[in-house]
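Lab meeting minutes (informal)
Scribe: AK
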Amino acid sequence: MSYIFLIIVISSQSSNLQVTPMQSMEQCQAAIKSIDVVREQGSWSDYVPKINQAKCVEVTHE
């Protein structure tokens, strides 16, 4: 059995690590793509925290 997680490192006054479970690798990659789209929109910059890194990780459990 495997689990997919979206891991986001947010830069603020102190580093913040967020781990979000996802249903599939495709859903996780879509979430990262949507984060990139929002970050590219200048008008959204006030609402979106500074994200240092976002990646999808698959964890296999036997």
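Next up, CB showed the second protein from the same session:
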Amino acid sequence: MTALPRPEGLRVVHLPARTPYAWKLQGPDFHILNGTETPSGDTVPTAVNAAWLLDHGPLTWLDVLHLHHIDFEDIATLERLLDACLGYGVNVVFTAHDTRPMVGNAEDFTARLQMLHSAEVTWVCLTEGSVTQLAKILGERPDAAIIPHGYVAPPETLAELERESSSQAGRYLMFGASRASRDQLSTMANWSLGITDPHSTLHILLRAFSPADFADGGRAPLLLETARHDPRIRLTMRPYPTDEEVIRAGLASDALLLPYLWGSHSGQLELAFDLNLLPVCSFTGHLPEQYEQHKGLVEEPEWFDWSQGHPNLFGEKFLAALERAAARIDSRPRHLDREFLDYRSQEHKAVLKHYTRVYGGDR
């Protein structure tokens, strides 16, 4: 079996490749195949899945399969893909973004992790704490490379940009898909009733709703109804917000609301650091460790702890944090931190070096 030439280094397919986290992983030793044509003339989807890859074998046209979020994959199909990669010498890398499921149940999530562990794929974790948590799930510590999340907004993209200034009160942003792990509804209601300044604004950038958001007690109708009653709240909906749209929304804001009921790591938290936004953030998962990685270089988030206590008290914890954040916004600088962006550039060079080793490009 003869592999195709590698004029640009290792050929990597990300499953999926819809986030800045995946797209920034390109360097002199490896490049991304998502969005490009295979030798057969088919274009690799950005959001490629296991079934598509199996339908486009033999897998001699890629060198590395980089797995990210596997919750939506049929486990039997994923197992067949791992077997195919083994047969064709494709190196499989799995970044454990989550240590608890974002969708589905814990049993299915654990089964997927156990399968990856048994297949001896190469593991990457974003924090030391996540490795410790995975060891509890798997029964033994995975041999994982720890590589930090890094930037979301590329420093070179921000080089000629600046935060939009405003003499009015705080401008708040919340964005992302409507998930069970993210409490958009009570966050919006508490902001609307708790922040009384008539000049404050809340921009909610939404990913397009699906029928599931309206069925079986879905919260989309209540979300829309709540927003309708406060003219300071602006809803923007996109099919899937582009990186440019998210960055533009962030540059026109002062604080980013991160109301995670649970979670592991957060790219949104890293974006807040990139744009020098004040994160109003749930103290959950490994998010505090993400902040610790940059402590002294970025402002500490305004934390609120939803991990313990009665759920009926979550509202007062969030609103207290929101009030503290409002006071901090009045006094904090509202410009991009160029020194931090320089640090991000150096951090990214180190990240690429780590991935060169993980992908096998230094062999």
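CB comment: The chain has 13 helices and twelve strands.
No objections, moving on.
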